[in-house]
Amino acid sequence: MTAYRYKALNPGGKLVKGVVEGDSERQVRNQLRGQKLRPVEVAVANRQAANTPRFRFNLFQPRISVSELALLTRQLATLVQSNLPLDECLQAAAEQSRKARTKGLLLQVRSRVAEGHTLAYAMGEFPAVFNDMYRAMVNAGEHAGYLGPVLEQLADYNEQRQYTAQKLKMAMIYPFILIGVAIAVVVALMVFVVPELVGIFAHSKRELPLLTKILIATSDFFRDYALYVLVALTALVIGLRRLLRDPARRKRWHRLQLRIPGISRLVIAMDTARFASTLSILMASGVPLLESLRIAGQVLTNLVLRDDSAAVAERVQEGSSLNRALRENGRFPPMMVHMVASGETSGELETMLERSATNQERELEMTLGTMMSLLEPLLVVFMGVMVLTIVLAILLPIFDLNTMVR
């Protein structure tokens, strides 16, 4: 059976939407009429992804958020561990979903499973939702016979991703608000307040202080060219994003990031923590080391580090130990290399990789917290200095006028 999206009119004439399963579009229409609904539109769920031109593929791929994926995975893990048949687990999870997109996605996966395909194969039709790591773990769990525990691990992993992302966003809210307020205050003073006060000095033949001249010139620039500057900045951002679509240019940009002090440390810490965590989960799920290295390398956002991970996998394939390959690469944190060496010696590589990822995430969290704590007072000081400069530029010629009167 296939999942179909539908739009229909109920007996009251109200348009309703939903997702149902059926053998054909005609059968679905008859099913809707049996429920006293008048079909308006019936189509295969997520069919637009297959029929969309290549250059617009990503736009129409069914996607769900990390929180939805974590909840969905947790529900599947609970249902699978209840010893229900897999297709019934997918059906129950679809019925519990409140979003039509997620429900249609699950029903499409269920239809492939009902046809005899594995869950990993069915999920492979939706790579924008279920990435390589997710499918590899599901595949390993199916073959080893412990799909439920593997899904539990995946749920934990996605929940941790969601928690980390939310914490980072919450930490960035206040600084961004301060930056926005600072810019708004300065622009408002330059565009609306300063031009009104300039008239006070227009009739004076006395030479204005340099600070006041700079303020007036800046105010005139903002008033006359603010819109052009905004358009230019927007065009610059769009142009840079288009340029960075080219893999060669993006790799050069990523290489530059690794050369900037401070930034390089954050980039390496974020990517290697994700790499170690993914590698640990894959190996604990029974995925071979070489395959785990290949998949874990794909979660790295920095292309230079991704190439480094591929080089590490190649050296391991040639017979080198993992810790030696990481050490010779030179970009992976020394603590991570040390813990990997300890794990290989003791036979607990998965556990040591997990500890390494936890330590790096904790260190990264502390570093970001320190940076945000420093950024907030610096922004307040910046706002104060800007406002003080504007006030002084206005008051200095006023003091000169008072001196002339005396």
What does this structure look like?
With 406 residues, this protein is mainly alpha-helical. It folds into 3 domains: 2-44; 65-206, Receptor-associated Protein, CATH 1.20.81.30; 265-366, Type II secretion system (T2SS), domain F (Receptor-associated Protein). It has 17 helices and 3 strands. It has a 3-stranded antiparallel sheet. A hairpin with a 5-residue loop joins strand 1 (2-9) and strand 2. Helix 4 runs antiparallel to helix 9 and helix 12 (263-284) packs antiparallel against helix 13 (289-298). The protein is flat, with a radius of gyration of 30 Å. It starts with a strand and ends with a helix. It is a multi-pass membrane protein. It is found in: Cell inner membrane. Belongs to the GSP F family. It comes from Parahaliea aestuarii.
